[in-house]
Amino acid sequence: MNPTDLPVPHKRERRKQDRPGELLDAALDLFVEKGFAATRVEEVAARAGVSKGTLFLYFPSKEDLFKAVVRENVVHPVTQGAGEMAHFKGTSGELLEWMMLQWWHRYGATKASGISKLIMSEATNFPELAAFYRQEVIEPGQALVRTVLQRAIAQGEFRPVDVELALHSVMAPLLFLVMWKHSMGPCCPVSEQIKPEQFITQHAQLLVRGLSLPQTP
Amino acid sequence: MNPTDLPVPHKRERRKQDRPGELLDAALDLFVEKGFAATRVEEVAARAGVSKGTLFLYFPSKEDLFKAVVRENVVHPVTQGAGEMAHFKGTSGELLEWMMLQWWHRYGATKASGISKLIMSEATNFPELAAFYRQEVIEPGQALVRTVLQRAIAQGEFRPVDVELALHSVMAPLLFLVMWKHSMGPCCPVSEQIKPEQFITQHAQLLVRGLSLPQTP
Amino acid sequence: MNPTDLPVPHKRERRKQDRPGELLDAALDLFVEKGFAATRVEEVAARAGVSKGTLFLYFPSKEDLFKAVVRENVVHPVTQGAGEMAHFKGTSGELLEWMMLQWWHRYGATKASGISKLIMSEATNFPELAAFYRQEVIEPGQALVRTVLQRAIAQGEFRPVDVELALHSVMAPLLFLVMWKHSMGPCCPVSEQIKPEQFITQHAQLLVRGLSLPQTP
Amino acid sequence: MNPTDLPVPHKRERRKQDRPGELLDAALDLFVEKGFAATRVEEVAARAGVSKGTLFLYFPSKEDLFKAVVRENVVHPVTQGAGEMAHFKGTSGELLEWMMLQWWHRYGATKASGISKLIMSEATNFPELAAFYRQEVIEPGQALVRTVLQRAIAQGEFRPVDVELALHSVMAPLLFLVMWKHSMGPCCPVSEQIKPEQFITQHAQLLVRGLSLPQTP
DNA sequence: GATGAATGAGTATTCATTCAT
DNA sequence: AATGAATGAATACTCATTCAT
C-alpha cells in the first residue's frame, strides 16, 4: 500500500517530469556561486545530467532560465510562518527572536537563500527581478515585523521607536548572514565562521532589550 | 603668474598621469553596476574618454584592471579614524555610535563603498580578492570594534555579552546598508529609501541600550 | 544492396568524423603557404567548409591546430621503406639512388612535404616541434642512410669517407628540393623549374661515383 | 691625422647617420629568428636603441622595413669573388671547391645569410622579393657555376653531365647549410652540429670525383 | 629630428542558441 | 523528446601606425 495514496510514476517518467526541476537546481547552485554572466548554460546542463540542447527545450533562453530560478526559489519564509505565529505564546520579544530563528531555519540555512545573494549581486542587471523580490519577499517580511513591532509598542511592551528604522535592525543581520554565507563565508577559515543561530539569538536579545521599556520595579 | 608655484605640465603629460586614475574611476562605476563579467573593457575605456588600446597600456588585462580597482578603492575607513578615536570624549556607547556614523560618512556614503558590493558579488570568482578584503578591511574594523566592546565590558559599562557575536551586530547593518545602496536601492521608489544616518543612529542606540547594564537607581 | 557491406553512416555522422581531417588538410595548405602567424584560423575554417567556431570544437587553439598539423603529417617515408629495402637486389649505389627516389615519391612529392618547409620556417618559434621533427624524421632517415653507407664501406664498395658528412650529401639535396618546391618554386617560370627525379638521379649517380673505389681493371 | 682621410663626424652626428643601419641590423636578426609576422616593430626599435616612432621616420611601414632589410643584406657573394676567380690557379675541381668555401666564408657564415632563410620562409608572402632574390643572388651564382662546369666539360676535365642539374648539386648543400643554421641548428645539441667547412670540402670532393672522367692510366 | 602616448583595425577565442538527426 | 554538432555574434587583447609635444 502506498501511504501517500499518490500514483507512483515509472522511474523513467518521473525523471522526465523532473527535468525542469533538476535544471533549476543546478542553475541555482551555479548562478549563486558564479553570478549570471560567469555561469555557462552548458555547465548547468551538465550538472543536471542533460545536454545543452535539452536545457533550451525547457527554457527559451539563459535569461529565462535565470528568471525561472529566481521565481522558483523565492519562497515566502516569513509569510509561511505567519499562521503559526498567531498561536505563538510569549512576549513580543520572544516572538521576534522566534521569527528570526524561524526565518533562518526555513530560508537562510537552505540553498534557496542563495537567491538573496543572487538578487543583490545582479539587481542592477535585472531590475524587474529586484522589484519582484522586494515585492514578494522583502515587503511581506517587513509587514510582518512591522505588525509585531507596532503591536508591542501599542501594548507598552516596546518603547515608541521609529518602526520603519527598527525594521531594518531586524532584517539587516539576516540578509547580512545570507550574503556572507554565499560570498565571504567560503573564503574564511572554519575557525572564523559566523555561527548563525547564536548570532541571531544574541542579536535578537540585544534588540529586544534595547526596545523594551525600562523595568519599573 | 602661476598662483600655485607648481610647474604646469603640458596637456599631454598631465593627461598621461591622470589616465590610470580616470580608468580606475570608470571601471569602479561599471564593475559595481554590472559586475565583472558583464562589464566590457571597451565601455570602461569609453567612459574614461580613451580608446580600448589605451586601457591596455595601463592594465595588462581585464582581471588586472579589476584587481587594481579593488586595491585602489579599498581604504581603511575605520582604521583611519582610529587616531581621532583616542581623543573621543564620551561614553563607550557614544563612541560606538560615533564610529558607525564616521564609517558611513568616510566610506559607506562614498563611491568607494561600491567595492564592498563588488567583493561580495564576485567573492567566489576572485577568492584572493575576498581574502585580501577580509584582511585589509573587515579584520581591522572588527579589531577596532572588539577593543571598544571589551573595554566597555571591562569598565562595567556594557554587560558581559559574547563580544565576537556583538561585533557582527555592529557591522552587519553597515555592510547591509552598502549592499542595499548598490543593489536594491536604485530600484526602490524614493519614498521607501532607507535613510542611512537615521538608521545607524537608531540602531546604535538600540544596541547600546541592549548592551548596557540595567540602571541601578 | 550495399556493395561494401559497411554500415552507411548518416550524413551528419560521416561529416563529423571527417571534420578533423578536413581541418588539418586546410590548415596544412595555409600554414605551408603563409606561415603560422600570417594564417587566420577563420580562413582555415572557411577552406574546410565550416565556421570559425567549429574549428575550436576540434582544436583548442591555433597553436594546437598547428602542432596537430605537424604531428599528423610527419610521416616516416624512409623508415616505411625500410622493410622493402631488405629485399633490394643491387649494389649499394643502386640502393642509395633507389632510396632517394623513394623518399621523393613517398614524401617530397606529396602535400605532406610542406611540413618540412613549415618546420624550417617556424623552428625558432616552435622549438619543441623542431626537436620532434628531428627525432621522428631526420634521425631515422639519417640512421638508414648511415647503415647503407657503413655497409658499403665495410664491403669495400665505397671508399672510407667520413660517413657523418656523407650523410648530408645525401639528405641536403632532398631537403633543398622540398624547401624550393614550397618557397621559390611557385615564383619561378615553368622553364626554370627544377626537375626533381632527374636531379635526384643525377645527384645520386654523381655521389655514388664519387664514393666508389677507383675501378681496378 | 686620420689615416682614412675621411672627416670624422661628431659622435652624436655619426649615430644619427647610422640609425637606419642600426635598425636594419636589428630587424635582420629578428626577422630571421621569428619571421616577418611574428616580429614586432617595437622590438626592432628597442634592439636598435630607438623609439617606435623613430623607426617610422626612416621606414614608412613594417613591410618597407622588411624589403629594405632584404635589399640591404642581399649581397652578391659569388659575383664578388668572380674577379679573384679569374686569377685562380688550379684544376676546375679545385676551383669548384674553392668557390664553395668562399661562398660559405663570405656569406653563409655571416649574419647576412639569414636573408636566404628569410626569403625561403616568406617567399609566398613576398613574391616580388623572392623574384628579386632569384635574380640578384641565385641566378648570378648559378651562372658562375655553370660557366665553370661548362668549361671543365669542354676541356675534357669533367664528363658531359647535364649542367643544369649539376648546378643544383653544387648549390643545394650550400642553401641547405644556411637554412639549417638558421632553423634546426639552434635546436640541436652541440655534438650534432654540422661542421660546414668539412662538409663542404668533402661534398665538393665527392662531386668533383663524380664529375671527373675515369682516370686513364 | 625624436619621442612615446594614443589609436583602432584586426584576430583568437568564447558561448548562447539553433537544428538536423 | 533528446542530442550534440554547428553557428556566428560578441569580446578580450595585440600591434602597426599616427601625431602632439
UniProtKB/TrEMBL annotation, chains A, B, C, D:
<dbReference type="InterPro" id="IPR050109">
    <property type="entry name" value="HTH-type_TetR-like_transc_reg"/>
</dbReference>
<dbReference type="Pfam" id="PF16859">
    <property type="entry name" value="TetR_C_11"/>
</dbReference>
<dbReference type="InterPro" id="IPR036271">
    <property type="entry name" value="Tet_transcr_reg_TetR-rel_C_sf"/>
</dbReference>
<dbReference type="InterPro" id="IPR011075">
    <property type="entry name" value="TetR_C"/>
</dbReference>
<dbReference type="GO" id="GO:0000976">
    <property type="term" value="F:transcription cis-regulatory region binding"/>
</dbReference>
<keyword id="KW-0238">DNA-binding</keyword>
<keyword id="KW-0804">Transcription</keyword>
<keyword id="KW-0805">Transcription regulation</keyword>
<protein>
    <submittedName>
        <fullName>TetR family transcriptional regulator</fullName>
    </submittedName>
</protein>
<dbReference type="InterPro" id="IPR009057">
    <property type="entry name" value="Homeodomain-like_sf"/>
</dbReference>
<feature type="DNA-binding region" description="H-T-H motif">
    <location>
        <begin position="40"/>
        <end position="59"/>
    </location>
</feature>
<dbReference type="GO" id="GO:0003700">
    <property type="term" value="F:DNA-binding transcription factor activity"/>
</dbReference>
<feature type="domain" description="HTH tetR-type">
    <location>
        <begin position="17"/>
        <end position="77"/>
    </location>
</feature>
<dbReference type="InterPro" id="IPR001647">
    <property type="entry name" value="HTH_TetR"/>
</dbReference>
<dbReference type="Pfam" id="PF00440">
    <property type="entry name" value="TetR_N"/>
</dbReference>
